[in-house]
Amino acid sequence: MKGKRTLLVGATFVALLGMLAVGQSIFQRAAAQAAQAAPGVAMAPKFEVDPLWPQGLPDGMTLGQTIGVAVDVNDHVWIVHRPDVLDDLEAAADNKTGACCKHADPIMEFDQAGKLLRHWGGQDGPNGEWKWPASNHGIWVDKGMVYIGGNGGGDGHILKFTVDGKFVKQFGKAGVTADSNATDHFYMVAKIHLYPKTNELFVADGYGNHRVAVINPETGAMIRYWGAYGKKPTDVSPPYTPGGPLPQNFRTPVHCAEPSNDGLVYVCDRTSMRMQVFKLDGTFVSEHMVMPESGGDGTTWDVEFSKDPAQRFLYLADGRNQKVHIYDRKTMVELTNFGTGGHYPGQWYSLHSLATDSKGNLYTTETYQGRRVQKFTYKGLAPVTKKMQGTAWPNSTGQ
Predict the structure, then answer these.
(1) For 332-353, what is the mean pLDDT?
(2) What is the pTM of this model?
(3) Which residues contact 8 (CB under 8 A, 6 or more apart)?
(4) At 26, is the secondary structure helix, strand, or coil?
């Protein structure tokens, strides 16, 4: 009899929890709909970190500085990282001095569940067919092809592979120096983005050069390039002083060049604390400062868009202040932001790159000592109740 009462109490408790969850869900939807209907109430995307994504890496693999993320047509998540930064303890298994751990290949593919599917890369081609970058940086995956850049000394090229790691082509060449007006090579590329409407590769070129370059993805031929305000670029990195005159040239690095569906290109001039917007042909449109009182390694690290056809919202990675800023893309008014510094789930140590999947989920990577990829689950639109949300914990009140 006692056992039956225990089971009954337990079942009742579970049922109550279910009713509360349903009630809470209904309440949240009703509140969101009411807020949306109320004049003057801003709505913005809401995210929650998934602390169980990705799954653990097999065989003691350890990530280095994780400096690129992309999502393919299958919603698989690709990252590029720097295994060469691991110390002797982190690579003890490779060094035969301990059971754990070892270098992971620099290119890694995860499915939606966070399971590692493929990993490859890191070697030069046979007979010098291609040169692996001295320092990996940036990844793009589209039409069954993987593009990576490099921001190490002498890295003046982009590599193109199939998703299985088969070499396709090298654009540019290694062993060069800065030349922001070169047409046969780059210098320290930060990021690549294939724009399908024009079938052009937009290159943030980047850490050595000071420009956006646009090339043919099949031949690598230079189509056009430009510097800050759409002017001819130079190799000079002018100073930035908060409150002072803004640099007339891009500083180091030009960290992203992201085209939107409606034909605008959003460029991260990272250490100038600004984002400049251009037309596809390089015509200057507008400029937007992001926490301009900041210093050091800058505030505009990467840009991504919401997944609705109009790309209503723009997400900006701020690796200096450890935030994702969310903008209304039409007005470029910042609606809210989320994130704090730290090593726990939902926090960042040098937030570096952003990507979204078809469901609107957001993926982030971290460099320096952050060294990881995280998933932030899209929870729909929610009313904005505060500018700074803090860490996007699961089941948090958020905005």
Answers:
(1) 97
(2) 0.90
(3) none
(4) helix
